[in-house]
Design goal:
The complex is a heterotrimer.
Chain A: E1 3-13, E2 26-35, E3 39-43, H1 50-57, E4 65-70, E5 73-74, H2 80-86, E6 87-90, H3 102-108, H4 122-134, H5 150-163, E7 168-172, H6 180-197, E8 200-204, H7 208-214, E9 217-222, E10 225-230, H8 232-235, H9 238-245, E11 249-253, E12 260-264
Parallel strand pairs in A: 3-8, 3-9, 6-7, 7-8
Antiparallel strand pairs in A: 1-2, 1-4, 4-5, 9-10, 11-12
Chain B: H1 3-27, H2 35-43, H3 51-85, H4 97-111, H5 117-121, H6 123-142, E1 143-144, E2 147-148, H7 150-174, H8 177-187, H9 196-214, H10 217-223, H11 227-232, H12 237-259, H13 265-277, H14 281-305, H15 314-332
Antiparallel strand pairs in B: 1-2
Helix pairs in contact in B: 1-3, 1-14, 2-3, 3-9, 3-12, 3-13, 3-14, 4-6, 4-7, 4-12, 6-7, 6-12, 9-12, 13-14, 13-15, 14-15
Chain C: H1 4-17, E1 23-26, E2 32-35, E3 42-44, H2 47-55, E4 62-65, E5 79-80, H3 89-94, E6 99-103, H4 109-117, E7 122-125, H5 130-143, H6 147-168, E8 175-179, E9 186-188, H7 193-200, E10 204-205, E11 214-216, H8 219-224, E12 229-233, H9 250-254, H10 260-263, E13 267-270, H11 282-293
Parallel strand pairs in C: 3-4, 3-6, 4-5, 6-7, 8-10, 8-12, 12-13
Antiparallel strand pairs in C: 1-2, 9-11
Classes of the chains: A alpha/beta, B mainly alpha, C alpha/beta.
Chain lengths: 273, 338, 299
């Protein structure tokens, strides 16, 4: 298995420390690798730096120390369009306002493959339709995105990312606003895309159990540093989680899949109920 | 139908409409020429010094060309600003460039051109100088360490626009009373026949601005995803914002330089076209070039003939027509519910 | 012989090409105006010039005027090209003028440029003093070939002006405030003909030291100058009495009981629109104005 993505000693600070209460946020000495073909999850508390990690990976910001490498090459050496041909991001929320149709949205994903073209080629359109079919939104193609339900929107955004034909698919909190049904659907889609298309998946989520079920390996991030890396069973240990998240948890095993299941120990304040 | 086909159909229909409106405009005017006389003048069969030739070829024809160009340029600038700021209210006047150019011209008219480099270029030179000043001010205010901030851009544009409008008001209050009428008349927007040389320059600049916007039309679409998402798709967002801003400022400054500030075209025409063609900027930008021409040409034809032989300023017509159309759009298509 | 041929040819061409009746004149702003022949179709964009042309009896050469050229009444029979600021070029061209008379006080620079491009000779006038007005009469007389009518007209005007001067000479000059427009307050300054007329009529315009022709003045400052006579121009007749625009509202001035003019009851509101037209009838206005300022001189 080759290393698709490598973070080597990456450090980064946001330029405006006044923005956070603690007076500044820093990623420090972050090193890990994502293997080609795996489903890799990044978990941790909200301010741990998950989004910053994504931004570094997609070159929205650049590291101050260390290096991020894609397929062995430093990101700084890649043109933006080249990077976009390899890495596709499904953001947490659909953009608003967004006056285009589903098909127009998905076609936007073809831009990195032909930035000089004014109109999309027939091949672009065919690939877009295939992507829509893969995520089950083909019948909705002509509808404005804003008319879709939350789950449908998510699938349309995923179709756009698939249309980009990436080697690495990045999902930023894919289930955060979804109903249970769509959460299950999304989990299935992720695995399907990984298995059928061989796309490496990077999943950022605060839903520990989703990550446990779907991911091959996990990265636990805490206050800008790597706390643990490894298989879900190794990373999702009670002591580690309590140290990082700062609350009582219990970890069991899901009998159906053999994966860890994390439960918050809900405080009981009212006696006798 | 693919986007390319739809564009071709739209351009064909709009082009035919423009030709029709231009024809009407050439045949109608306060000189009361018969259609036959106008036709003779157009085909060159009337004498060069005849009334119909002079009126048709030296007065009406240049004016029709100026109206079509100005309308197209303003509409394209409107599409560009709306795509750039993702705000349907954005139009050339909002970004302060219009007022800056108008300020330049008012200065020229009031203080006389005097011996200077700008005087050599005439009033148009002053307009460009004013437009450049305003655009630079807006840009400098809106630029932050990361790049060009769009929200600040809108606010900066409004503020710079207000500043220059106030400056114009100050100048008007001290101007010689006799020149006041002329200055005020110009400020309402004023399409007069422009000599062939200037018209060629006007066309060249307008088409340059149009081309600059057109080549980024696809990327402007992508900006709707949000700047970060667009960057992740490979769009150089900073370069895109800079270029579109400059192009729209160029288009606006050019129009103000040659015809005075004309409002509402950049606001109304893009919205009308969106109703017909949808949101794709690749269709809207070329359609706006022709559609804006139709709109302003129709307005100017009315302005020329409603109170004949006196003339209304074209800005009066665009405001009167533009405002209700915009209200209608707000109530139907842009209905915002709580 | 062959040598002389081209020379003779050139001479012949030159003779034929040069219009025999060509006139080259200088207008009142010093520009040279070339008229291929004496003008027979004149369009006047200046109400004062229209008035003068009628006064000289040259109206048969006048083919066009502006909406504001309403005096004398016969002028309304002539075709109008629109406003002074926004005349219709098309209508103007249809009238086939060989001369357009315009002024830099009221017409637009752009209009002159357009006329130049259409190769229509434009003669600019500028009269903000009585002597300039008389000069304008003389020039228009020459342009229209009515030089014989100039003398009697100018002499009559001069005589009447002198008569007014003599009549008011023995009396002390009161301070006069002339209100051209009440809100915002607009008064005549040094460059305005009105200031000279007030002076001839035996008054001293309190705002005569201001540089420009028309000055936006503050009411406070006007009141502080303590005028002894206040004349409010009534424009109601000009605007057709619509909406009371230009109505002088004397009650507003009567509040200032400290002002000498109010105390002495010398607040007049008069239709003196002829004073604002700057044509020969301005002398009629002058006489009326003198009667207001010095009633004692004309008993």
């Amino acid at each position: 298995m080759s290393r698709l993505v490598e973070f080597a000693g990456v450090g980064f600070t946001y330029a405006q420390p006044e923005r956070t209460r603690e007076g500044g946020f820093t990623l420090a000495d972050v090193s890990f690798a994502i293997e080609a073909g795996e489903v890799f999850g990044v978990i941790g508390p909200n301010s741990a730096g998950k989004t910053t990690l994504l931004r570094l990976l997609t070159r929205v910001v650049a590291p101050e120390r260390g290096e991020v490498r894609l397929e062995g090459r430093p990101l700084s050496r890649l043109a933006h369009a080249e990077l976009a041909r390899r890495v596709a991001v499904v953001p947490q929320d659909a953009p608003r306002p967004f006056p285009f149709s589903v098909e127009q949205l998905v076609l936007m994903g073809r831009y990195p493959h032909g930035p000089g073209r004014f109109f999309e080629s027939p091949e672009d359109r065919a690939l877009a339709r295939a992507a829509m079919a893969a995520t089950g939104v083909l019948e909705l193609a002509a509808l404005p995105l804003e008319q879709l339900s939350g789950g449908e929107r998510q699938r349309a955004m995923l179709a756009r990312a698939l249309a980009q034909a990436p080697t690495l698919l990045v999902l930023d909190e894919p289930t955060s606003h979804l109903d249970l049904r769509y959460q299950a659907e999304t989990a299935a889609l992720i695995q399907h895309v990984n298995a059928e298309r061989g796309v490496t998946v990077l999943l950022v989520s605060h839903d520990l159990n989703l990550a446990a079920e779907v991911c091959d390996r996990l990265l636990l991030l805490s206050r800008g540093r790597v706390a643990r890396v490894g298989a879900p069973a190794e990373v999702l240990r009670r002591e580690a989680l309590e140290a990082v998240f700062g609350c009582e948890v219990s970890v069991d095993v899901n009998p159906a899949s053999g994966r860890p299941v994390v439960q918050v120990a809900w405080p009981r304040v009212r006696a006798g109920r | 139908m693919s986007a390319g086909r739809r564009l071709a159909v739209a351009l064909a229909v709009l082009g035919a409409t423009l030709a029709a409106v231009a024809a009407v405009s050439l045949f109608v005017g306060s000189a009361a020429l018969s259609p036959g006389a106008v036709a003779r003048a157009l085909s060159g069969r009337a004498g060069a010094e005849s009334v119909e030739s002079i009126v048709t070829l030296q007065i009406r024809l240049p004016r029709v060309a100026a109206a079509a160009l100005a309308g197209g340029a303003l509409a394209v600038a409107g599409v560009a600003f709306q795509g750039l700021t993702r705000n349907p209210l954005a139009e050339p006047a909002v970004l302060g460039v219009s007022s800056g150019a108008a300020f330049g011209v008012v200065v020229a008219q009031i203080f006389g051109l005097g011996p200077s480099v700008l005087a050599a270029l005439g009033v148009a030179g002053f307009a460009f100088a004013g437009a450049l000043l305003a655009a630079a001010a807006v840009y400098l205010i809106a630029v932050v360490p990361g790049g060009l901030s769009i929200q600040t851009l809108l606010l900066a544009g409004v503020i710079v626009g207000i500043f220059f409008t106030s400056a114009i008001t100050v100048l008007i209050s001290i101007v010689d009373f006799n020149r006041l009428g002329g200055v005020v008349h110009w400020l309402l927007g004023n399409l007069a026949p422009i000599p062939a040389g200037s018209l060629a320059l006007f066309a060249a600049l307008a088409l340059l601005g149009f081309w600059l916007v057109l080549r980024h039309a696809r990327e402007l679409n992508l900006l709707a995803l949000g700047e970060e998402a667009a960057v992740q798709l490979g769009v150089d967002a900073e370069r895109l914002k800079r270029r579109v801003f400059v192009a729209a400022a160029l288009l606006t400054g050019t129009v103000v330089a040659f015809t005075g500030p004309i409002g509402f075209v950049g606001l109304v025409v893009p919205h009308l076209l969106r109703g017909l063609l949808g949101q794709d900027n690749r269709l809207l930008v070329p359609a706006a070039l022709v559609g804006g021409g139709i709109f302003l040409l129709a307005a100017d034809t009315l302005a020329r003939n409603l109170i004949s032989p006196a003339e209304l300023s074209v800005g009066v017509i665009t405001s009167f027509c533009g405002a209700p159309v915009f209200v209608y759009l707000l109530r139907t298509r842009y209905r915002v519910s709580l | 012989m062959t040598r002389a041929r081209p020379l003779l040819l050139a001479l012949a061409v030159a003779l034929v090409a040069a219009p025999v009746d060509a006139v080259i004149v200088r207008d009142m702003l010093g520009h040279e105006v070339t008229l291929p022949r004496p003008p027979a179709r004149i369009v006047s964009l200046v109400p004062a010039a229209t008035e003068i042309i009628f006064a000289l009896g040259a109206e048969d050469r006048l083919v066009g005027r502006t909406d504001y050229c309403e005096y004398p009444a016969a002028a309304r029979a002539k075709a109008s090209v629109g406003g002074m600021v926004n005349p219709s070029l098309e209508t103007l061209v249809t009238l086939k003028p060989d001369l357009v008379i315009a002024t830099d006080e009221g017409n637009r620079e752009e209009t002159f440029q357009q006329l130049a491009r259409l190769r229509i000779p434009t003669y600019l006038v500028h009269a903000t003093r009585l002597d300039a007005l008389l000069d304008m009469i003389g020039r228009l007389g020459e342009l229209t070939g009515r030089t014989t009518a100039v003398g009697p007209l100018t002499q009559d005007l001069t005589r009447r002006v002198d008569a007014v001067r003599r009549a008011v000479a023995p009396y002390p000059r009161p301070r006069v405030l002339y209100v051209i427009w009440p809100e915002p307050l607009i008064v005549p300054g040094r460059a305005s003909l009105l200031t000279e007329l007030i002076e001839v009529a035996g008054g001293d315009s309190v705002t005569g030291q201001q540089e420009q022709a028309y000055v936006r003045f503050s009411v406070e400052a006007a009141v502080a100058l303590g005028p002894q006579v206040i004349v409010l121009a009534d424009h109601a007749s000009a605007s057709g009495g619509v909406s009371g625009a230009g109505r002088p509202e004397p009650e507003k001035w009567r509040r200032f009981t400290s002002v000498p003019a109010i105390r002495a009851g010398r607040l007049y509101s008069v239709d003196l629109s002829i004073l604002h037209r700057y044509g020969p009838t301005v002398v009629d206005g002058l006489e009326s104005l003198a009667r207001l300022i010095h009633p004692e001189a004309f008993r």
